[in-house]
Amino acid sequence: MRKGLFLLTVFMAAAGVYAQTTVDTPVTLVPVTVGVQGQFDGAQAGAGPIAIPSWVNGSANQAVTWTIGTCSLGTGNCGAFSGGLYTPPASITVNTTATATLIATAAADTSQSVTVWLTIYPAGVLRFSTLGSDYTDALSAFWYGARVPVDNSAAYSQTDYRASSWPNTSADTTVFSTYYHTYPDDIRFGPFWVANGNYKITYFFGFDYNNCSGTYSLGPSDSSGPYYLVTQGSIQSRFDFGMYIGYLCRTPVQVSVPATVTNNTLEFGVYSSFFAGAASSNDAEISAVSFAADSSSSHWCIDGQGIATDTDAACAQTAPTGVTSGGPQVLIPAIGPTTAGQFNCIVGGVGVSDQSYTAGTLQLGITSWYAGTPSPTWSIVSGPGAISATGCYTASSIPNNSTTVTVQATDGVSLTALANILLLGAGTVIQ
After folding, report:
1. How many Å from the N-terminal Cα to the C-terminal Cα in the chain?
2. Where along the chain do the CATH 2.60.40.10 domains lie?
3. With respect to CATH, is domain 33-121 assigned 2.60.120.230?
4. Is 61 helix (H, G, I), strand (E, B) or coil?
5. Are 338 and 360 in contact (CB under 8 A)?
6. 207-231 pLDDT, tens digit each
7. pTM for this predicted structure
8. How far is Cα 407 from Cα 401, in angstroms, rounded to an integer?
9. Fewer CB atoms near the end CB (10 Å): N or C, the chain?
10. Nearest to 229, CA basis, from 367, 119, 59
11. Per-residue DSSP letters for 132-163?
12. Which of 183, 185, 64 lies closest to 116, judged by CA?
């Protein structure tokens, strides 16, 4: 450390006359500080070795020495560092967690360090609810509830207005009955330190606020979407779970999206988005999440926001009995040339004020399952209308009878995805 002498000037006023005095006071300067990417992280047993991003401010010497401080499993049982890389323990007891502190000390000034508070989870599928306590559901699946790694201080736990029953399903709805929400903001999970590879991230939703009955009105305050489902910093789907369930109260729904990990770090979340007809963005909401390693082959799926139905078998999603899947077997609602809503194409692209949504259009996108960044060529296989190079479908006219339009996205080599759009006939009414 070094000490410097600063000149502090104080101005004083008395009887309308300003007087000036100076005070010399010693101020301690700390030129070296240590930083890390995140101080509250999760790690799966068996992952690693992991390079933890760190930096040193105030010195050209960026070297740090990592050590393990406390360990809830006892000294030596929370993994180890070797060559600056951290390896979690090979295993821990299922349905439990361990905690440890990892300390990075600057080589340039050993009095300066930073601490990472780490939660260690067992290998395998990890499920996180918003219940506030751990829970085992009717299918014997274990959910962490008290140790949810939410990387957002603006996420509020909503447990006070739980519905007393869910009449539209026979499923165990306990994990759907509470949720995190924001005003508005994003809800981010992680970072998790995991083995490199492909992962399936599943999001769980359900609108049950205060025993909501029947259907609920469509609006930003309802917090049923649309949301951006984001993994590894990229939008995988623009999802409105209310659309999948016909805005029916107390009806559980889940949807899965991909994530590829190449640096042992997994992050995902639900991000707020613009809502058609409102100037503000939509509040993000989530009841539960899970992630698991995924061995499925590389493929594309068309993200049709619940309106276009992807016809490819590889894109089918499954859910427990009584839970609606956000997969392509769902086909509601349909669109017409004058239909306006949050599913319309946005003039200028995603993120522009929703008041620039274009009626009679449907914005399609690609969810790339482990096939890299998509650059599709769009075309209409059958049916009326037109589709742009950016995946914006435009209905040309109102047909006499409801008509199915089939669209295609391809990379011209090995990746192709098909989806059906139901174009409403004259006089057709949707709720």
Report:
1. 69
2. 33-121
3. no
4. coil
5. yes
6. 766 667 777 665 545 566 678 899 9
7. 0.83
8. 19
9. C
10. 367
11. SS-EE-TTS-EEB-S---B--TTPEEE-TT--
12. 64
